[in-house]
Amino acid sequence: MTTIDSWSALYRHRQQVKQRYPTIWSVPLVKKEMDRLLAIVRDGARVLEVGAGDRRFGRKLQALRPGIEYRSFDIDPETEQDYHRLDDVDGQFDCIYAFELIEHLTADEGLALLTTLRGRLRDNGTLLLGTPNLYHPHRYWGDITHRTPYKYEELGGLMMMAGFASPSVHRIYNDAWLRRWFRLHVGAIAHRYLDIDFAGTILIEAGIAR
Fold first, then answer.
1. Quick one: CATH architecture of 7-206?
2. Cα(102)–Cα(174) distance, rounded to whole angstroms?
3. Is the pTM of this model over 0.85?
4. CA 1, CA 66: separation in Å to the nearest integer?
């Protein structure tokens, strides 16, 4: 299994991500995961959802991009998927996405997964990952099955170790209009002072390093 055998390399990659996004507040906001998926996925694309669960993201994506070829993978045998073993996944994809998955793995398992997914991407393909935002006060700690907490620069650095290019990072925050306005224009002052974010999820995307 692929392991993190060079912590200095991981630190170097983390610092590269940190230079691009010096603080959590420099990471731009999007409302939903689907915003980034739609920006990446075009009709005719071949798409793989990893850790698909009930495949709700896949159904939404297919409704908005009816021309895509969608495939799903999840190890849970009680769910209906195209693949239940990663080794059975065939071919390459224009986009691979995995939301709320990598934090359930150890760091070494996460690196091994990222390395495998890189091999499943086409040359101009994109990997999109979502994970709980550690700057949110309770988002990560609400699930007993979580095993590895990732700050955005740590996950970005791990992706670079797996052979991905320097990633783009977003924070997800969606709310009713008035609450959203208050958070962004008034409450943000207190949030910045306390270094506590209101965005619950981090999205990181990258292509294959050249």
1. 3-Layer(aba) Sandwich (3.40)
2. 22
3. yes
4. 37
